Amino acid sequence: MFKKGLLSFCVFAAALAAGCSEQKTETPQAANTYFDNSGRDDVLAGGVKMIPIETDYGTFRVWTKRIGNNPTIKVLLLHGGPAGTHEYFEAFDSFFPGAGVEYYYYDQLGSYYSDQPNDDRLWTVPRFVEEVEQVRQALGLNKDNFYILGSSWGGMLGMEYALKYQENMKGLIISNMMASIPDYVDYANNVLAKDMDPDALAEIRAFEAAGDYENPRYEELLIEQHYVHHVLRMPAEEWPEPVVRSFKHLNKHIYVMMQGPSEFGASGLLENWDRKADIHKITIPTLVTVAAHDTMDPEHMRWMAEEIPNARALDLPDGSHMAFYDDQDRYFDGVIQFLRDVDSGVFAAGN
């Protein structure tokens, strides 16, 4: 899940991170048709479309942006948080166009580029699922072309959407997310926390017991002891600018309400979320990323790839929670290969 403690840190780190050098990877030239906007109704806005979302508590708008044109591979990116932003996905610009993948950035309701209504009745998993369905319909995506790539909370939302609406989908990519919040909490407390320096952990626990989550020392300890090992395995001052910007724009109110403030526990509305008993019902082609250094338990995610009947695991031995940065080539090679295999009808589970 997105880490609340980074909010203040990222404002400070922005200037340092802005100078981060770009990674360059050669990719094949995209076909001319990839840039064909004929008949598109978003050309004047550069692919941006504000989509109305009907809810029981009013109608609101969410922000989306299309990049590329591919009639059979269209990927909707579901960001983490809850209430993060699409911005940390911007590394996809270096890989998806060259592979001819059409993809959609999307800020969920309550997130920075979309409407941010002040109504806590909106922040439920079922309501977010219905939002994704309305976005799908507005973008004209269907079972012949529609993929979801969900990262962290977005992976949870992708699972929930697939369990209700997989007949509308062509494939699902669960990126760095377990199928159980209680299991995530157990892994954080009984595995990751025990690998920390004991004195630092005791200090972190003391801040949490006091509810002093805004203390600069608490954030400093988490950055040193946790974030740079399990969230994004780079020195904090080298974190890519889109990541820093995305954390800066996190809607803290919604995040704390749904996830809770603690780094090593969930105390919000998602505290008891668990779909382990249901994920076998997802039958569409599915890719599960398994990053060795993730905040999420890699063995649990490997089990998910075995439990979902038409799934394969993508091993990322150098990856953490943002493996599309710290194990980038393996991540994008595996995701693009999955999309091509499903598209060409040669996808096989377990590979």
Please characterize this protein's 3D structure.
The chain has 351 residues and is of the alpha/beta class. The chain has a single domain, classed as 3-Layer(aba) Sandwich (Rossmann fold). It has twelve helices and eight strands. It has an eight-stranded mixed β-sheet with strand order 1-2-4-3-5-6-7-8, with helices on both faces. Helix 4 (153-165) links the parallel strand 5 (146-151) and strand 6 (171-175). The longest helix is centred in the last third of the chain and has 17 residues, at 328-344. The chain is globular.
Give the topology.
Blueprint: H1 6-17, E1 48-55, E2 58-67, E3 74-78, H2 96-99, E4 102-107, H3 125-139, E5 146-151, H4 153-165, E6 171-175, H5 181-192, H6 198-209, H7 216-231, H8 241-248, H9 252-258, E7 286-291, H10 298-307, E8 311-316, H11 323-326, H12 328-344
Parallel strand pairs: 3-4, 3-5, 5-6, 6-7, 7-8
Antiparallel strand pairs: 1-2, 2-4
Helix pairs in contact: 1-8, 3-4, 6-7
Structural class: alpha/beta
Rg computed from alpha carbons, rounded to a whole number of angstroms:
19 Å
Q: Which sequence of SSEs, written as H and E, runs from N to C?
A: HEEEHEHEHEHHHHHEHEHH
How are the strands of the largest sheet arranged? 1-2-4-3-5-6-7-8
Fraction of residues in β-strands: 5-15%
Helix fraction by DSSP (H/I, runs of at least 4): 25-40%
Net shape: globular
For the sheet with most strands, the description reads: 8 strands, mixed
Tally the helices: what do you get?
12
Write the CATH fold name: Rossmann fold
Please give the number of β-strands.
Answer: 8
What is the count of distinct domains?
1
CATH class: Alpha Beta
